[in-house]
Amino acid sequence: MRILVVGDIIGKPGRLALKKYMEKHEEEYDFVIVNGENSAGGFGITKKITDELYDMGVDLITGGNHTWDKKEIYPVLDKEIRIIRPLNYGIDNVPGRGYIILNTKNGKKIGVINLQGRVFMPELDSPFKIVEQVIEEVMSKSDVVVVDFHAEATSEKMALGWFLDGRASLVFGTHTHVMTADNRILHKGTGYISDIGMTGGFDGVIGSKKEKIIGKFMNYLPTRFEVCNDNIRFNGIDVTFNSKTGKCLSIDRIDIGLEEI
User: Fold this and answer.
1) Where does Fe cation 2 bind (predicted)?
2) CA-CA distance, 81 to 83, in Å (whole number)?
3) At what angle do helices 154-163 and 127-141 cross, to 10 degrees?
4) Other C-beta atoms within 10 Å of 118: how many?
5) Which helix (H) or strand (E) holds 76?
C-alpha cells in the first residue's frame, strides 16, 4: 500500500499546489490524506473547501487546533466521514470524530487517528491516554493504522511515536509548518517524522505574510494575518506499507516548488 500525506494546506496558494500535484500524481497512491485546518484563508476550513479537496482526489482531511475557526464546519464534521478532528477534544458536545476506518483504492482498510498535543498548546485530554483507549480497536479493523499528531513540541511527537511503535503503521507530525529531516522507521516497524511541513507560500512566516508577523513581534498590537502568496511549495510524505503486516517499508519526504510539480 502506498499513501500520500500532505502537510498543512495554507489558504488558496496551498490548494493551488495540491491541485497541481494531484493532477499529475493521484493515480500513484492508494490513499491521500491532507491536513486541512488552515485551508480557508490560513485559518479553519469550510464546506466549500472540503468539497474542493475531495474533487482533487483527497480521501481524508485531518485537523488540529484551527479546525474550529469556521463554525460552519461544525455540522460537516458530524455528517461527513472523510474529515476528522483531534480525538482528545472529547466526545461530549464536540462535533465530529477523532478517528475513522476507510477503504483504500487497493481494497484494504486504513485506520486514521487524529490527536493534538498539549505542550505549548491548549490543555486537552492526554493524547497518550486517549489513543491507548482506541488503538487496539482500530488495529483489529484495519490493515494499516496512521496517526496525525498535531503538536508543537518535537519531544512530545517523538514520545508518541515510540509509544505507538509496532502498533501504528505511521505517526506523522503536523502544526509547526516546518518540515523536519528525521523521517525514519522505528524498531518495531512504525514510520515516523516529527513534522511534514506545509503546502503554501514559503517567503513568509509559516504561511503568512512576513510583514504582518514581524510587526506583531515588534509591537504586539492586534494584527490581521494574511496568507503569503510568494514562493509556493508543496510539502508531504510518500509512504509505503506491507498491508499484510501493517509495517512501514519506506517514508520519503516531498519538498518541491510549484514550478517543479
Assistant:
1) 37, 65, 150, 175
2) 6
3) 40
4) 18
5) helix 74-79
Residues 136-161 have pLDDT tens digits of 999 999 999 999 999 999 999 999 99
Any residues with CB less than 8 A from the CB of 126 and at least 6 apart, and which?
88, 118
CB 46 within 8 A of CB 40: yes
Give the separation between CA 25 and CA 233, rounded to whole angstroms. Answer: 16
Q: Please provide the average confidence, as pLDDT, over all residues in the chain.
A: 96
Q: Is 255 annotated as a binding residue?
A: no
Which residues does the annotation mark as catalytic?
Answer: 66
| C-alpha triplet 141, 236, 116: angle, nearest 5° | 60
Per-residue pLDDT reduced to its tens digit, 113-140 = 999 999 999 889 999 999 999 999 999 9
Stretch 5-30: mean pLDDT: 97
Could you tell me the three cell numbers for 190? Answer: 512504525
**Residue 241 half-sphere exposure toward CB, CA atoms < 13 A:** 32
Question: What pLDDT sits at residue 92?
Answer: 80
C-alpha–C-alpha distance, residues 126 and 118, integer Å: 7
Rounded to whole angstroms, the Cα distance separating 41 from 129 reads 33
Q: Is 235 annotated as a binding residue?
A: no
Start-to-end CA distance of the chain, whole Å, equals 23
Reduce the DSSP state of residue 192 to 3 states and report it.
strand
Collect all residues with Cβ–Cβ distance below 8 Å to 238 and sequence separation of at least 6.
Answer: 2, 3, 4, 250, 251, 252, 254
37 is in an annotated binding site: yes
Tally of CB atoms within 10 A around 229: 16
* Residue ranges with strand state E in 70-143: 99-103, 109-116
Q: Which domains does the chain have, with CATH numbers?
A: 2-260 (3.60.21.10)
